[in-house]
Amino acid sequence: MTKIKKAQILNYLNMLKIFGYNYSEDFVFEEKSSCDFSLPSNHNELREVVKSCHLCELSKHRKNVLFSYGNINSKIMFICDEPSKTEDELGEFYHGNSGEMLLNMIKNVLKLDKDDIYITSMLKCRPKTEANIQNYDSCFCYLSKQIELVKPKIIVGFGEKVFNYFIKDDGEFLQKRGDILKYENFTFIPTFSTQFLLKNPSYKRDAFEDLKKIKTVYKELI
């Protein structure tokens, strides 16, 4: 229900009250989470649910849903913030300039193959403008289920948006990126998003150091 429609309903009810109508009991409007529904515990079935999702307005503008790529038994999970334009058009990870940069990081620094990693995105649809918290809350239902099914040893969060949502620590990203943190029972390591690095290449050296730490932790945990 849109805000305009809600306002129209409230105005109508107030008008009825002015003319002497009384409600038999008070209306109670409860805040309902978009996660108030069960999700399948099968990865392929979950993918199909997400592909047909219409929980928020992002579904109106998407070209494709960006769900995941890689090994569902992987010990390391990459979480990006949102699909790039190219990823939205193709419905696949590792495309466009940011995707190619990430692929180079995986191969040249982590010394892994992209099929060794499970990658997903916080937002499954590309926002037309700036995404809001409701968009992230809607998608986080699916992301939480993905984490539950994959059970990674390490979660790598790419970008400040991912860091803030997981760690709930606004303003500390630059100080804590590259640190070994905790999210529930998982090891969580934040670093820069590739889209940020493309716009701010001076941070590539810092990202390289983060990746070296991720490589070391990964080897220790597996």
Automatic annotation (TrEMBL):
Pfam families: UDG (PF03167). Residues 67-212 form the Uracil-DNA glycosylase-like domain. InterPro entries: UDG_Type-4/5 (IPR051536), Uracil-DNA_glycosylase-like (IPR005122), Uracil-DNA_glycosylase-like_sf (IPR036895). The keyword 4Fe-4S applies. Keywords: 4Fe-4S, DNA damage, DNA repair, Hydrolase, Iron, Iron-sulfur, Metal-binding. GO terms for molecular function: 4 iron, 4 sulfur cluster binding; deaminated base DNA N-glycosylase activity; metal ion binding. This is Uracil DNA glycosylase superfamily protein. It comes from Arcobacter porcinus. The lineage of its organism: Bacteria, Pseudomonadati, Campylobacterota, Epsilonproteobacteria, Campylobacterales.
